[in-house]
Specification:
- The mean pLDDT is 96.
- The chain is α/β, with parallel strands linked by helices.
- It is globular.
- Helix content is 44%, strand content 16%.
Length: 399
């Protein structure tokens, strides 16, 4: 069956792509903006747009290498769309704009690039070199896994509901899921989850299975005083609150105050009252909390290479300088923020990166300088090869 293309939808997708590559928009924000400005589009149209944009971002280098040049204008982007449509196995419609595309030549070129990893897997040269250097024989499989579309995983909010009961309620809203374990459900068919009654009532959060492993890794108990020092939008703070049965205290901190505002909104929906937010606007904020926490979570800024399947535009926005700077930031954060952990307390350092230089090597450097204060209890590496996001976590104990 031939999939019908509609000129207005293709043009809208290409407009979003130009915003991503030429104006620097993040892909998810570009898609969100596009869909908000056209509320009359149906579910099928919205799904087509999201898939087309994400997939063309994912395979951007492969597409422009086949075309022979990077796109500069709408006509070039239309060429790239035609190439993507062909390598998807579809047939191009009889539109004037596609008449210059030689379908056979495109497919031959596509096959020719299958032997060149950085083009076949569509990544910049520098990133392929770093991946090979740091992951050696695991790089091929890891990179291939990162180009698979991301799964949608939910975390049942155990303050309000069990995963099994959530599964039943979602089915009433025509959303089918598969139980993974703990509080995790895999959504088997894409739907607008945020329009559901179950979401509005705070019964679940969208959170990848790998990310859901971080909060339990902290070995928390109800009644503890916990600091989530790089909380961002607060997904892990909310998970911690649920694991603590909403007993104790969580101080959720971030350098970006607007992210904490989002966390407060999410906390109200989730029904938790133990989260307090603090903006890190000076070194004094951290200094005042030295030696006060039973548990400290450092989900530090990172390259995000473990989550490329859900943020494929990151590989085009990253550069070697950013990577070097983020490693410095990670080292500074663990050196400074670890002081908030009290003696006998525990700390988790976590990233959604796959690079040892952001993960194991950071912990080794920290411990070589602080061996008299901290010891490594255990490490956990979740590879994208396992089907979820790439994550690293290290559990440290303070003497």
């Amino acid at each position: 069956m031939v999939t019908k293309l509609y000129p207005n939808l293709v043009s809208a997708a290409l407009e979003a792509l130009q915003g991503i590559f030429q104006e620097g928009y993040y892909a998810d924000k570009a898609i969100e903006r596009l869909l908000k400005s056209n509320p009359k589009w149906g579910a099928r149209d919205r799904a087509f747009l999201a898939e087309s944009i994400y997939e063309m971002v994912r395979w951007y280098r492969l597409l422009y290498e086949i075309d022979g040049k990077e796109p500069k204008n709408q006509k070039d982007w239309m060429q790239l769309f035609g190439i993507w449509w062909l390598i998807k196995g579809e047939t191009l419609p009889d539109w004037d704009v596609f008449k210059t595309i030689d379908s056979q030549a495109v497919l031959q070129q596509y096959q020719a690039f299958q032997g060149i990893r950085k083009i076949k897997e569509s990544i910049p040269n520098w990133l392929d070199e770093i991946g090979q250097q740091e992951l050696s024989e695991n790089w091929d499989a890891t990179l291939h896994a990162l180009n698979e579309p991301a799964k949608v995983i939910l975390r049942a909010n155990r303050l309000k509901i069990s995963a099994k009961e959530l599964q039943r309620l979602l089915l009433n809203e025509n959303i089918e899921t598969t139980f993974l374990d703990g509080e995790a459900l895999l959504v088997t068919q894409r739907k607008n989850l945020f329009a559901t009654k179950t979401f509005r009532e705070g019964l679940f959060e969208v959170q990848d299975y790998a990310s859901q492993q971080v909060a339990p890794f902290l070995q928390i108990e109800p009644g503890m005083r916990v600091i989530d020092a790089c909380a961002g939008g607060g997904g892990k703070s909310l998970h911690l609150a649920a694991l603590m049965q909403d007993k104790g205290r969580i101080i959720s901190m971030d350098t970006e105050g607007w992210k904490l505002q989002e966390l407060r909104r999410r906390a109200r929906r989730a029904g938790t009252s133990i989260i307090e937010t603090r903006t890190i606007d000076s070194s004094k904020v951290v200094k005042r909390l030295e030696g006060t926490a039973d548990r400290v979570l450092l989900d530090v800024p990172c390259s995000g290479l473990g989550v490329l399947r859900r943020n494929p535009d990151a590989k085009w926005k990253l550069n070697p300088n950013f990577l070097e700077n983020v490693r410095k930031t990670q080292a500074e954060i663990i050196a400074s923020y670890s002081r908030m952990c009290k003696p006998g307390g525990k700390l988790v350092y976590a990233t959604c990166s796959i690079l040892p230089s952001e993960n194991q090597e950071q912990i080794q450097k920290f411990l070589s300088a602080k061996s008299q204060d901290f010891q490594l209890v255990q490490e956990k590496i979740i590879s994208p090869i396992e089907g979820f996001d790439g994550f690293y976590m290290a559990l440290l104990e303070r003497h």
